[in-house]
Amino acid sequence: MARSRSTASPIAAREVAGREVTGRDGDGWRALPGTPVTGADVAIGIDVGGGSIKLGLVTRAGAIIARRRLDHRHGAAGEAIVAGCAEAAAALLSDRPGGRLCGIGVGFPGHLAADRGSGSMGNVPALDGLPVAALLGRRFGCPVRLINDADAALMAEYRFGAGRGVRRLLLVALGTGIGVGFALDGVPVETAGGCLGDAGHMIVVRHGARRCRQGCLGCLESVASGAAIEAQAGATRAPEGAGGATALLIGDALAGDPAAAAILTDAGRWIGMAAASWCNLFAPDRVLIGGGLSAAGALILDAVRDEALGRAMPGNVAGTDFALAGLGNDAGIVGAAAGLLFADAPGQGGGAATRDERGHA
Description:
It is a single chain. The chain is α/β, with parallel strands linked by helices and 361 residues long. The protein folds into two domains: 14-151 and 330-358, Nucleotidyltransferase, domain 5; 162-326, ATPase, nucleotide binding domain (Nucleotidyltransferase, domain 5, 2-Layer Sandwich), CATH 3.30.420. Helices cover 32% and strands 23% of the residues. The strands form four sheets. Strands 6-5-4-7-10 form a five-stranded mixed sheet. A five-stranded mixed sheet has the order 13-12-11-14-15, with helices on both faces. A three-stranded antiparallel sheet has the order 1-2-3. A hairpin with a 3-residue loop joins strand 11 and strand 12 (178-184). It starts with 13 loop residues before the first strand and ends in a 20-residue tail after the last helix.
């Protein structure tokens, strides 16, 4: 089959999807029967990363109209991280007191529980098993849903970005870890843990292998993730907060530093090696490179594409192109929110939530 190529201020009388919401003094929202989602609605998207958490107030057009960022230390208590998210989310509502809050979507960097209320095996171990949705639901009284972070970025790109209209879409999210999502006709493929399993932990190194932060020996994350790159670059480039060493490395590489460029190109080749296997499995029409490391642009993209095309079965990549994600590092925020804004959003439960997720007993 031929495939195409292409390149906490209370807000009175609010409504959420199927509910009216009335502000309470400082303590969140109270859900009551109301009307369906409309074009004036907004949702909060939370993108949880290994070193930072990004939050945004998102419209149905996919625009982020207010944002916050939290840096968190490795080893911080999970309850403290969620409390920080709640305070930042409340501040977002204070920033933009118009519109109606549909709910909160959380992009989680790992596997999801069956009820999409908690996660496990992620890059933020303190959140493993913590009832994130219930904790946020009690604070805000609105639907809260978790989605795998790579799938969040994937669906944002499919609906608003560089993946619009692409039938077989693969996205590689390069951050502290490496997440991979694949959608067929706009529906994310789930194999385990409410996501595409652990494709970022595909084994690529046999001899001299290192373990990644989650204990996998010789996997892609151990050599090409943001954490692995910082381990290489951090000795000579002092970090400035979470992800600082990588940001400095990318800046130096784009300014012409050959040593910095070599580190990023090498990471791209490792990613391309794994991408060849993903292409053999899924034969995607398009492969998108997203996440914070995608700021390196062609340094990463060209290395990924050349390595993947040189290793994959030719028939599986004959119609495949490789491109940078269109929404950049905002995709995770937008995709996490989209499931609350669109009743037809695949793989996200259409914004529906259980009683526990809304904070009720």
